[in-house]
Structure formats: structure tokens, C-alpha cells
Design goal:
The protein is mainly beta and about 220 residues long. The protein has one domain: Beta Barrel (Porin), CATH 2.40.160. The chain has strands at about 10, 35-50, 60-70, 75-85, 95-105, 115-125, 135-145, 150-160, 170-180, 185-195, 200, 200-210. Strands 1, 2, 3, 4, 5, 6, 7, 8, 9, 10, 11 and 12 form a twelve-stranded antiparallel beta sheet that branches. The radius of gyration is 18 Å and the shape is globular.
């Protein structure tokens, strides 16, 4: 599988730094800031092919997701998500509609990381054959810590609560490096897990927004 992801982020007023949740899996530990409106949108390309040369199975699909965020205060924000899929042999349509809040409890100070919690309701809306059967919820605990003035660590631990299927636990650990104030890079591991002794692992890397590295940039 090959995954390509990019994002566009805008604000309704000037802010010193854009606090983005893309392009990686891990989300930062900060809200947008008071009265800041932010749009994050991206596309992911998934390419599938069979490992057996005698079996011809090839498919390509595009997943799209747009996040709308607005800061009610420096610590509290509301957000919504709409997303879906198209292309290849998959059915096209919307299947990801969310609404929720994020609260930043602490900023990064010395050894104490920035800490936030994000909670969203997952609605059974969208294309009839793609949408969720019942309402669900997703909760993520995030941290962000500056290891140096250019190197930062972001961690996520979360759960997706489902009424129509088993609950899903997941994690992400991202290490980011700021080359300049506008250019950075990150590497991360992430995946779902059933229990702490049975943890799967995926890896990705890419470009981030740059400085600072204390949870703003992932």
C-alpha cells in the first residue's frame, strides 16, 4: 500500500504559528487559539496489488477528509470532520462525519508536556452503503514535548467506541524536527491494538509546518 497525503491550512486572523493536525497520524496537543478558524483538508491515495503473481488483483482508491476547527478560547476549540472515498472499484461517497471538542490542559513547560484531550461523536451519515450503522465516539489523549529547540515529540493514545462493532484502541508516536520556522520533517509509528501485549506497528514520514516543535506542527 502506498499512501500520499498533503494538506491546506488557513486561518481567519493572524496567528504566530499554524497549529495543524496533518499530515501525519498524530494530532498536536494544542487548540487553535481564541477566535481562530482553521481548515485542514487532504487526500490519501491507497494502491493495492496481490503479492501472488498468478493472481491479478489491483485497485486504487482515494480517501478525502476535511477538518473545520474554531477556537472558543485559548484552550477550548470545537471541530467537525467530513470525509469519504472515491476511485477504483470502491463505491464513491461520504462515510465520515464527526463533531466534537478539544481542550488543552497544559502547555509544554520544561519536562512537563503539553496535554490535551479531543472527543468527537461519529455520526451514521453519508452514503447508505458506506456510512456507519450506529452512532460512535472517538477520544484521544495527546501530549507534546520539546526535547530540544528543534526536536519535538508528540504522542497519542485513543479509543473509538462503536455500537455496531468492537471498540478499537489506537496510538501514535511522532518525532518532529524543525529545519526552519516554515519547514520541518517528522517520522512516526502508529496503529491499532487489541491489548498492550498485542500491538501492531505502521510507519510514515513527511513534511511538517516547521517551528516550533512543541505540539503545534503535527
Amino acid at each position: 500500500m502506498i499512501t500520499i497525503c498533503w494538506s491546506i491550512t488557513t486561518t481567519a486572523q493572524f496567528a504566530e504559528y499554524i497549529r495543524s493536525g496533518r499530515p501525519g497520524q498524530a494530532i498536536g496537543a494544542y487548540s487553535t487559539g481564541k477566535n481562530i478558524f482553521q481548515v485542514q483538508t487532504g487526500l490519501t491515495s491507497n494502491n493495492f496489488s496481490a503479492e501472488d503473481p498468478n493472481i491479478e488483483i489491483r485497485d486504487e482508491e482515494w480517501l478525502h477528509s476535511t477538518v473545520l476547527r474554531f477556537g472558543l478560547s485559548e484552550q477550548l476549540e470545537i471541530s467537525g470532520v467530513i470525509g469519504g472515498q472515491f476511485g477504483g472499484e470502491v463505491r464513491n461517497g461520504f462515510n465520515n462525519t464527526q463533531l466534537g471538542v478539544r481542550y488543552n490542559f497544559f502547555n509544554n513547560q520544561g519536562a512537563r508536556p503539553a496535554i490535551d484531550i479531543q472527543s468527537r461523536l461519529l455520526f451514521p451519515l453519508g452514503d447508505e452503503e458506506l456510512r456507519r450503522a450506529k452512532m460512535g465516539a472517538r477520544v484521544i489523549l495527546g501530549t507534546g514535548n520539546a526535547l530540544t529547540n528543534r526536536l519535538g515529540l508528540t504522542t497519542n493514545l485513543g479509543v473509538t467506541l462503536n455500537q455496531d462493532r468492537p471498540d478499537v484502541y489506537f496510538y501514535a508516536v511522532a518525532l518532529g524536527y524543525s529545519v526552519t520556522k516554515r519547514l520541518g520533517a517528522f517520522v512516526e509509528i502508529y496503529d491499532n491494538f487489541n491489548e498492550f501485549g498485542d500491538v501492531e506497528m505502521d510507519f510514515d514520514t513527511g513534511r511538517s509546518n516547521g517551528y516550533p516543535v512543541t505540539g503545534y506542527v503535527y
